[in-house]
Amino acid sequence: MMGAPENDIVSASHDPEIVRREERSRMRTWEWAALSLALFVGAALRIAYLHEFSQGPYIDYVAIKPDPAFHDDAARAMLGLYDSENPNGHGPGQPADAPYLHPPGIIFFLAATYALTGPVLWHAYAAQMALGLVNCVLAFLLARALFGRGPGAITAIVMATYWGLIYYECELHAVVLLVFLLLLLMHAMRWWLTRDTWVRAFGAGLVLALVVLTQSVVVTFAPVAASWMAYVGWRRGLGRRALLAPALLAAGTIAGVAPVTVRNYVASHEFTLVSTWGGLNLYIGNNPKATGLFMMPDALGEPESMYAFDEIVHRFGEQMGKPWTYASGNRYLAKKALAYMVSHPWATAKITVKKALMFWGPIELTHNYASVHYDREYSKVLRAIPMNFSMILAAFLLGLAFVAQRGGFRLRAKNPPDQARAALLGFVGLFVLTYSCSYIPFFVVSQFRSPLLPFLMMFGAYALWRGMLFVRSRRYRRVSDRSL
Fold first, then answer.
1. For residue 19, pLDDT beyond 60
2. What DSSP designation does 28 have?
3. Does residue 270 sit in the same domain as residue 283?
4. Is the pLDDT of residue 127 over 90?
5. Nearest Cα residue to 434 out of 227, 144, 203
6. What percentage of the chain carries pLDDT values higher than 90?
7. How far is residue 168 from each of residues 171, 176, 483, measured CA to CA in Å?
8. What is the DSSP code (8-state) at residue 304?
9. Is the pLDDT of residue 283 over 60?
10. Cα–Cα distance for residue pair 202/272, rounded to 1 Å
11. Which CA distances in Å does 34 have to 20, 136, 321, 347, 455?
12. How high is the mean pLDDT of the chain?
């Protein structure tokens, strides 16, 4: 294991050592100060960027970016606020007689925001920025539980000031909401690890369902999480009872997703788990002219937003000489992509490697008319923040190496707090791996990797903290003396 940290996930016990750990887990004055400073600076940066953003073209004309316009229109239509006489964007967004074209989590979030504050765009941006500050606190608490006080404070500061997170808080995409739900999911797992009751396992499943409804590709993590829970239970000596928690996680996930699946069936009379956009995304990433980026194949025409799916379905229906539906069109495009991958294994292998390199590469890739790199360059606020993805990734890899070197993922500790901490590290590590691998078969854009940032930052903060302790202990002098 990584040694006894200053604070750990604690179990309900009256053991004196556990009690002492609980005492040490209480927030110290300097921690409150660091967290408060992070939130203050983060709020100041967000206010400055929102003011700058309000002077640009997107604050009132969100339709310039079609996918955000789709989310905005669909949220307004859900509340009965869409005015067909004065349309915003290209139409009411989500068709009433179709399954969800896109995971509806962001639409639900925007509808709730508009219901509370009124259908004003800057209210949505402000709500996302407020949620971004909440994410700083959640990341701080998670990093503190995993790595200790110092890494927790560093994580809060980086989360509050990283330009990429601030940027997406002024984009009506699902990034900010997804970060919130993923952090909530890890805290739910942490809560279950402290005491593995059925309520906590089922609750973690409900949170996972919210994640899937916000970004359906994360459904690939469900079997991974369930398997890890079973393994943790087996290591705890639960025997067959180790299968109860994964079953409850699955039950909670199914219960949370089911209302959307039922709604999709009622609307279209076809089975669609969450949304119908996956087949098209897979085809965009796997066709004879695929580049690994968001680029519509020639057969699909020029449109480059979710508004185009209706046109695409009807075009293929005309070519085939039969009426098509959204769900059948989605399945057709998925089969078309898979057929190409099977018949062109070498080309598929090459572009998969290319997409993996781009996913973890230093460039912020364009998507849906959003030139992230250039948006940052033209922003005085974002340009002034020195961090970039390459720095975050390098620190993450160093922190990951430190954790692996000290056996941080092994469930061999005899005391419950250290074992629970190792299990939670496993959850986080497996999520990063599963999430990144799940996206690579599609195409690569900046916003797809952004939800991983908090978890990369936590490991990076641990590496930075270890480096600070190394310098503070003056060990570097001993190293240099030996080299003379």
1. no
2. P
3. no
4. yes
5. 227
6. 48
7. 5, 7, 48
8. -
9. yes
10. 23
11. 24, 12, 65, 50, 19
12. 83
> Following CA atoms 365, 108, 306, 257 in sequence, which dihedral angle do they give, to the nearest 10 degrees?
90
Give the Cα separation of 81 and 463 in Å (integer). Answer: 49
Pick the more confident residue, 121 or 155. 155
Assign residue 95 a region (left: φ > 0; alpha: ψ between -120 and 50; beta: otherwise). Answer: beta
Residues 193, 339, single domain; the answer is no
- What is the crossing angle of helices 149-161 and 121-147, to 10°? 160
Q: Which domain holds residue 468?
A: 16-275+370-483
CB-based contact 8:407 (threshold 8 Å): no
Length of the chain measured in residues:
484
CA 300 to chain centre: 29
- The tokens describing 64, both together, are 């310039």
Domain count within the chain? 2
Q: Is the pTM of this model over 0.85?
A: yes
Which tokens is 453 given?
């940032």
How far apart, in whole angstroms, are the C-alpha atoms of residue 213 and residue 439?
16
As a whole number of angstroms, the longest Cα–Cα distance in the chain is 81
Distance CA 46, CA 161 (A): 9
Question: Tokens 């590496």 — which residue?
Answer: 463
Residues 334 and 404 grouped into a single domain: no
**Domain end position, chosen among 306, 325, 359:** 359
Q: Is the predicted pLDDT of residue 323 greater than 90, yes or no? A: no
Mean pLDDT score, 110-124:
90
d(CA 108, CA 100): 12
Query: Locate tokens 């407020």: which residue?
Result: 130
